[in-house]
Amino acid sequence: MRLFTYYPNPSNKKETRVGIFKDAKQAEFIPVSDADASLPGTLMEIIASPAFMKRATEIQGQSNLTWKSSDGVAYAPVIPKPEKIVCMGLNYADHAKEGGNARPEYPSFFMRVPSSLLGHQQAMILPPVSDKLDYEAELAFVIGKQCHRLTKENALESIAGYSIFNDGSLRDYQRKTNQWTIGKNFDYTGGFGPCLVTPDELPKGAHGLRIQSRLNGKIMQDSNTEHFLWGVIETLVLITEVMTLEPGDVVITGTPAGVGYARTPPVFMQAGDTIEVEIDGIGILKNTIAKEGK
31 lies in a domain? Predict the structure, then answer.
């Protein structure tokens, strides 16, 4: 099943609704509220309830629905306001190497804030204080139930679904301190979407999925989640050693080699560019780049 969040009125970013795609083509959808008015209005509430998720699955299988075209839909981030966005760095050996880092003994974790997120087909914003906005193609997954001290045996039971993330990074700000957080949290720099794909549609732990980024159609990153240093299961075990994860929390799993700052000469995204991130079985996250206020 493929669920997503959208703005029914693109000029009002405070109001969101949930849609269900008809199939993997993602060409048609139905608003959840049209199919069953008793379902909650946010994806966070739906994924937190096994009963609501079961009902959503039943809706997708109904034959009497009037499906709508997804053309022109104004996508919101899959989860617009997660309580926690836990990000990993250096989770691919080739990316660690291109940044001059040895293979790490432990992941580099950092946090994002909700105001940094934007949806599929929305503009990533280039702020006036920097021109070094870089792309990072990443697999994301969303937590479906409260979990703490997970084990390798039960970790995957906590996942509601998988999505795509572009961890847009202002590289000069990222390097102003020893911590990366400041360069990773500019407003509207973290593309998140287009949808949440439930685990039953993907390999166990999203293993073996090809992941690419394309800047203006040119392939910049091309790898596979089989190259994770820490897979989804190991990542969950490590994070929940430390903190309790709640429904709607998002985990971002790191990027492979090919980022812009490591190229000669460096390649940064400019206003007017288009950046796409594609992951097998999930889809394509597409964003344009725009200057702030334009």
Answer: yes
Q: How far is CA 5 from CA 42, 120, 126, 143, 286, in A?
A: 8, 10, 24, 16, 15
pLDDT, tens digit (0-9, with 9 covering 90-100), for 17-53 = 999 999 999 999 999 999 999 999 999 999 999 999 9
Domain region containing 36: 2-75
**Is 152 found in the same domain as 93?**
yes
pTM for the model = 0.96
User: Could you tell me if 41 and 180 lie in one domain?
Assistant: no
β-pair type (123-126, 283-291): parallel
Q: For residue range 170-217, what is the model confidence (pLDDT) as tens digits?
A: 999 999 998 899 999 999 999 999 999 999 999 999 999 999 999 999
Total tally of structural domains belonging to the chain = 2
